[in-house]
From TrEMBL:
Database matches in InterPro entries: DUF2065
Stretches that traverse the bilayer: 30-49
Record key words, sorted: Membrane, Transmembrane, Transmembrane helix
Transmembrane found in the keyword field: yes
Entry annotated with the keyword Transmembrane: yes
Protein name, entry field: DUF2065 domain-containing protein
């Protein structure tokens, strides 16, 4: 997981900064929905891999 998370800051640190600034400006509800969608996507990828 840390390898995957480290790819964006290694390849394009400026893009990571822009993304983090956008995350800070998001509402709590939007962050929760984004987190839920990320979890569902992760479960689907794990199911697909297995």
């Amino acid at each position: 997981m840390l390898i995957i998370e480290g790819v964006l800051p290694f390849i394009n640190p400026a893009a990571l900064k822009r993304v983090l600034l956008q995350v800070v400006s998001m509402t709590d509800q939007h962050l929760r929905i984004t987190g839920l969608l990320s979890m569902v996507a992760g479960v689907l990828i794990l199911y697909w891999v297995n």
